[in-house]
Amino acid sequence: MTKISFVAALAIMATATACSSKTPPKTPEKIQQAITQKRGDEPVKIIKPAKVADPAMVELGKKLYFDPRLSKSGFISCNSCHNLSMGGSDNLKTSIGHKWSQGPINAPTVLNSGMNIAQFWDGRAKDLKEQAGGPIANPGEMGYTHELAVAELQSIPGYVDEFKAVFGTDKIDIDKVTKAIAAFEQTLVTQNAPFDDWLAGDDNAITKEELEGYELFKSSGCTACHNGEALGGNSFQKMGVVEPYKTTNPAEGREAVTGKDADRFNFKVPTLRNVELTYPYFHDGAAQTLGQAVDVMGKIQLGKAFSPEENAKIVAFLKTLTGEQPAFMLPILPPSSDKSPRHNPFN
Amino acid sequence: MTKISFVAALAIMATATACSSKTPPKTPEKIQQAITQKRGDEPVKIIKPAKVADPAMVELGKKLYFDPRLSKSGFISCNSCHNLSMGGSDNLKTSIGHKWSQGPINAPTVLNSGMNIAQFWDGRAKDLKEQAGGPIANPGEMGYTHELAVAELQSIPGYVDEFKAVFGTDKIDIDKVTKAIAAFEQTLVTQNAPFDDWLAGDDNAITKEELEGYELFKSSGCTACHNGEALGGNSFQKMGVVEPYKTTNPAEGREAVTGKDADRFNFKVPTLRNVELTYPYFHDGAAQTLGQAVDVMGKIQLGKAFSPEENAKIVAFLKTLTGEQPAFMLPILPPSSDKSPRHNPFN
């Protein structure tokens, strides 16, 4: 049973106030329209709003995304490593998994991830639905099994009712679970960044320095890979084009999926949307600041040594890509029943 | 920068719909008034709404409550073990702390905790503000130090601005941090449970079985300790009055604070508000279901062996104590700066 409480009302009002103090509140209709791109010849495109086909499935997926009962410990949820309070990432070099396992690679942001050509740094999952099943059963991440996770959900009356309402059957399976999680993740599009407003024709949306940073970003060749709506996510590229990238991280990139030598150290180009929030950077999380990331990318991908002034301008531009963060009510999860397994994280 | 996005708008609408389908939406004013108790002679009282003196401080405290940067790992927040999606608890026997440390005792719910006579099972913290500092610096919980946590917050421009707005100074200290967290926690009052509606005079708010359960609860003596607005939290009582409580948990209760033999195994009586959501039960988390908890309490506190029918009725009554869960927008945390320390959970 979820009801809106007074605290809720207050919180909503407070949040709304906080928001409107930053930006005039928009009606859903207004926001729903993608702003149209006046500067049509730019390699960067205004990000399109999320299409929400089934709001009830999105709400179910949101609960599952926040539910640590999908992990063996009962402690780790999707949101633990793709934290929607922190740019859809965990801001750690590599993530913490079951029993404090050290993750092999930096957790990419879930924000705008529905636009990616594929999921994971090596693209081994074709879409969000396929990705969502991975961490649940990965011994070093959520450490559970699909069978146990589904059986546990099936023991929770509130979930059984909600799956029935969304899928027309109370028989839960991993396909429905990952479909609902993906439907929620698909909605995590961050619109109306200052740079989108500039693309829409508002000359005052970004500063002179930010604009100069964008011009440098283009003239230096960054847009060869970081282009389109997400400024990335739409191709695999070699890490270390001009000079090899030095890292202790053993990830081999795309080669692990295709088996082709040519794909060695090819990684999915990360989106630059909200990059101000998704530190540290690169698949190994080795770059702690945007300045470091810009410096390394210039050297190893473009053979360019940016001056401190150039670096600062590009960083200033990159910060104009921070969009509206997903804003929704904290989901309240249906309680387990007497039949539900109890988690013991310590054995 | 937080703005309300289309997804946000959708989410709010969806939630609002979900809520209003359960209960007619109330205006803040209506909710703000505590419903008045018609059945005035009952030992259980209608829970009073939270008094919110400083909404801006509550909003700051909410961010801090959800911020894992208050932990050494950068992974554990207050909400990790007092999860507001799960009745303000972690639903684990004992909690998981820094580097997967096993907690010594069951994490009590934060819901309605502002009404407690003191904080922690042994009451060693006099109030929420004093409690909030504990886990941050506890090596087995968040594992950080107050100095490092404060220095990190001081390196985050968004927090510096918000502390300045709330406290009139941009000099952050642990006193302000814990004051803000406590101000947020103070708002976590769960109103309008079905049983409150019954106390207000609505005969149809609870079923015949639930009412019989309440009558049994009273006549059996449960209300000797579980009374008032929170049905507990207002006294320390011995665990094992009629027969000793058998547990492998070494906690000695109140004696650890007072040093008095008489306080051995005295624990703060837990609230029964939202008890349906806060399994497992007792300071050692040994009772996995409400049925087990009622059975054990009957035997060791009251010398009563409840029949299965009696047990079921009391459990049915206890489930009428689930109130409106806190409902607010997921907080968006201000990003770290280049000066902020980066967390390394693995060394």
TrEMBL record, chains A, B:
Q: Does this entry carry the keyword Oxidoreductase?
A: yes
Q: Which cofactors does this protein require?
A: heme
Record's GO cellular component, any one?
A: periplasmic space
Q: Which UniProt keywords apply?
A: Electron transport, Heme, Iron, Metal-binding, Oxidoreductase, Periplasm, Peroxidase, Signal, Transport
Query: Which residues, if any, are the signal sequence?
Result: 1-18
Q: Which InterPro entries match?
A: Cyt_c-like_dom, Cyt_c-like_dom_sf, Cytochrome_c_Peroxidase/MauG, Di-haem_cyt_c_peroxidsae, MauG/Cytc_peroxidase
Record-annotated Cytochrome c domain positions = 56-164, 208-322
Which residues of the sequence carry a binding annotation for heme c 2?
Answer: C222, C225, H226, M297
* Residues the entry annotates as binding heme c 1: C78, C81, H82, H98
Q: How is it modified after translation?
A: Binds 2 heme groups per subunit.
Instruction: Give the Gene Ontology MF terms in alphabetical order.
Output: cytochrome-c peroxidase activity; electron transfer activity; heme binding; metal ion binding
First-listed, main subcellular location of the protein, grouped into a coarse class: periplasm
Q: Indicate the segments annotated as coiled coil, or none if absent.
A: none
The compartments listed are:
Periplasm
Keyword tRNA-binding part of the UniProt annotation: no
**Co-factor binding details:** Binds 2 heme groups.
* Entry protein name: Cytochrome-c peroxidase
Can you name the source organism? Chlorobaculum thiosulfatiphilum
